[in-house]
Amino acid sequence: MTTSTTTPVAHTDPDVHDRLTLDVRAVAKSYGRGTASRHILADVTFAVHQGEFVTVVGPSGAGKTTLLRCLAGLLSPDTGEVVLEGANVTAPPKGLALVFQDYSRSLLPWMSVVGNVMLPLRRSGMKRTERQRIAEQALLAVGLAHATNLYPWQMSGGMQQRAAIARAVACRPEVLLMDEPFASVDAQTRADLEDLMLRLREELGMTVVLVTHDIDEAVYLADRVIVLSGAPTSVTEIIPVPLPGPRNQLRTKLEPAFAELRAHVLGLIRR
Ligand SMILES: Nc1ncnc2c1ncn2[C@@H]1O[C@H](COP(=O)(O)OP(=O)(O)OP(=O)(O)O)[C@@H](O)[C@H]1O
């Protein structure tokens, strides 16, 4: 895999994000019943604006995946609500796509890459030729134009995760939710995929909410970082990231402001 030299632009101008896309209001969630009940999310409230890249960090077990599942309509909050584009999320909404950490389980091994990317487009009612054209475009956007006919098991982990990203963005989602998407790839591939996400966000105008354990990644990618407390979880702080764009893996991470933000986030998580 080649080193990415893309120079993604990050939105640092707050005026860009004046339209509310996702509104998370006092979400609470427990697992289990009675004495076995465990209160995971206590009161999580934040808003995400159109085109924003928001990252979510917090201690292990804080309920980051649980929160993402509530945002995706895969879990119902016990109390509170998730509102996407003004509508209450009660089931997986149209206009929202998910990318998980485990790319090996998210692609169907008996289908070619282009077949995998075309799969969710079936619901659109488009003709096969149109679905194929859109899937090939998405694969081109993630740097897999040469791999459309390969099967997932013929590709590296990074390529499989690119394919999963292509499948998610082929539907042109308003909001892309990503749960630790780069945790299983090597450091260089991870940096390439981070830059790919910044570029796609720019090109497609998507709103992105990305959960990560990696504080460098959280600060590098974000317009704002949402720091969660330990369970029972609430939002500890929402931190704007006023680092200039275009972000660059070497230059951005050498900026004193990057180091300060990184230390601040780490301090909040360790508190
Ligand atoms: N379906 C479930 N049933 C019962 N408990 C669950 C379920 N899913 C998660 N949990 C528990 O809820 C807590 C939060 O889990 P979750 O995966 O949401 O946290 P996380 O912040 O994403 O964790 P990590 O940082 O380790 O990835 C954990 O203690 C987990 O064991």
TrEMBL record:
Keyword Kinase in annotation: no
Single Gene Ontology MF annotation: ATP binding
Keywords of the record: ATP-binding, Nucleotide-binding, Transport
Domain called ABC transporter: residue spans: 22-255
Domain of life: Bacteria
Pfam families: ABC_tran
CDD domains registered for this protein in UniProt: ABC_NrtD_SsuB_transporters
PANTHER family tied to this protein: ALIPHATIC SULFONATES IMPORT ATP-BINDING PROTEIN SSUB, TAURINE IMPORT ATP-BINDING PROTEIN-RELATED
Protein name: ABC transporter ATP-binding protein
Organism: Rhodococcus pseudokoreensis
